[in-house]
Amino acid sequence: MRSSSASDNNELYGILEKRNINEVQFGIEKRFKTWYGNAVYFANDRKTLGYKSKSTSMTEKGNEIKTEEGQYWLDLLYVCEYCFKYYDDGDELLTHEKICIYKSKAPGRIKYASPEYTIRRVKGTKHELLCQCMCLFTKLFLDNKSVYFKLTSYEFYIVYQNKSTKPLGFFSKDLYSYHKNNLACILVFPPYQKMGLGTLLIEFSYRLSKHEGLISGPELPLSPFGLIGYLKYWSFAILWCLTEGELSGVAKVSIENLCEVTGIRVADVIMTLKHLKCLTNDNEILLPAVRKKAKNYKVERGFMIQDRYLLIDD
């Protein structure tokens, strides 16, 4: 049984136990199913999108939020693939995309520019509506995504293909994080998954925190999918550091050494080394096992983020 406080939080953040929107039309050409429910899009009648209704929000305290088996509040949500504004009518989306300001010019400042990808820093203070709409969209694909308002204390790092203004994915960063986390939320949008973009964004988040002189990591707890992605990155980063990088010629390496060089937190380093079966019960790193694992991870290929394309000095 859920506590009353948990129920209140679910109502506040629009969290549902079942999907309430069947599919998303993302731009003109992309259509796919949602993964999770999101009540925040709707007014009290569960049919009208909130921006079209003068009634109170579905998330106002006291309103009951439920879905019924096999029943959707909306069969198809139309979302602009440039700014994430949303509609329940395809013609409205077509009209909007013709004049969307982010179609001709992506927001924010470029912080990484390789021949293939560009990462832009978008401040919640300057592009609040875009960031809010993007967070609402994200809630359809992350079950633990909560924040979609009061985004002025967040920065968003959005990845684009070079010479394109269509966002592929993003991560957010809480500027006032008590634990100095380098990432609050990460999502690669469904049409662009399995392209290595999650790893690209995670790598970039660590480049930012290392540039700030921090040993850091993501906001906890991680979702199951998030943990898989991070274990993949942490494993690669640690194995590369020990076999190809700064600590490759060192006879004995401590966990603290690894943290300083990789920028990964102590707990995350220990968990990863245990996952790799490269750590003794006394927290001694088994370097022979590390070298063997490194071959499986093909660490010689190096990282996706290349220093020469970084633009993070300001």
Automatic annotation (TrEMBL):
PROSITE patterns: MYST_HAT, ZINC_FINGER_C2H2_2. It is found in: Nucleus. Keywords: Acetylation, Acyltransferase, Metal-binding, Nucleus, Transcription, Transcription regulation, Transferase, Zinc, Zinc-finger. Pfam families: MOZ_SAS. InterPro entries: Acyl_CoA_acyltransferase, HAT_MYST-type, MYST_HAT, WH-like_DNA-bd_sf, Znf_C2H2_type. Its EC number is 2.3.1.48. One of its GO terms (molecular function) is histone H4K16 acetyltransferase activity. GO terms for biological process: regulation of DNA-templated transcription. The active site is at E219. One of its GO terms (cellular component) is nucleus. Gene3D superfamilies: 3.40.630.30, N-acetyl transferase-like, Winged helix-like DNA-binding domain superfamily/Winged helix DNA-binding domain. Its main location: nucleus. Residues 78-107 form the C2H2-type domain. It is an enzyme of class 2 (transferase). Residues 16-314 form the MYST-type HAT domain. Belongs to the MYST (SAS/MOZ) family. This is histone acetyltransferase. The lineage of its organism: Eukaryota, Fungi, Dikarya, Ascomycota, Saccharomycotina.
